Amino acid sequence: MNDIALIGKKIGMTREFYKTGQLIPVTVLKMEKARVIHVIDKDKRGYQAVQLGFGKIKNSKLTKAMKGYFAKKNTEAKKTLKEFRVENIDNFKEGNEFGIEIFKDIKFVDTRSKTIGKGFAGAMKRHNFGGLRATHGVSISHRSHGSTGQRQDPGKVFKGKKMAGHMGDKLRTMQNIEIIKADLENELLYLKGSIPGSKNTEVMVKKSVKNINKLTIKEKIKIAEEAKKTPEKKKK
């Protein structure tokens, strides 16, 4: 199950308090239930995978081909379809549904979402340029990016030159984010810290790719409490 991901919506940020007085900022995600739409066999396609459907969509917004596809699969229409490669397809059957219970024993996850779009931004904001001087002959170009290129040779602007342009609205992956808690009843996932994207952004959450040995906050608090108890025993 850990090869697959879930899609959720970023609701916003809040905070979580612990009995030690510690305050942890958290991002709240409203997770979608995933439904197995199609199980892909190695003999037919050359690889093993499952196709999952997320979210609701009106029938009027579907193309004829997609209407036919969902009718053939005998399932309600889904807004997003995603394919995930899995080692064992025996665990999946068409029509099965699962939610955040798949993250039950997982401590760290990776998220993928779109950053906040900033529109057209200048070179200083976009690339952290220093800008030109405030006085001494600089005429109405204090925040410009300065020289764009050279002279007759090479006679062009090189590709990838840092200039003003569209900023943000890019897919970004955040790795090793700790799950603070999961609310199974309301399908809410509380992740430590911030996650790229504005409110209502679609966020894909999957088990962390890296093997992480670092301690979670609960584990750290537990160790600290045990450390407090031990000196008391020695005194006796």
Descriptors:
single chain; 236 residues; Elongation Factor Tu (Ef-tu), domain 3; Double Stranded RNA Binding Domain; 16% helix
Protein architecture, described:
The chain is α+β, with helices and mostly antiparallel strands and 236 residues long. It folds into two domains: 14-30 and 102-123 and 171-236, Elongation Factor Tu (Ef-tu), domain 3 (Beta Barrel), CATH 2.40.30; 33-98, Double Stranded RNA Binding Domain (2-Layer Sandwich). It contains four helices and twelve strands; from the N terminus they run E-E-E-H-E-H-E-E-E-E-H-E-E-E-E-H. It has helices at 42-45, 64-72, 123-127, 217-235, and strands spanning 5-17, 23-31, 34-40, 49-56, 78-85, 97-98, 108-114, 119-121, 165-167, 171-183, 188-192, 202-207. The protein is extended. The model has no long low-confidence stretch (mean pLDDT 89).
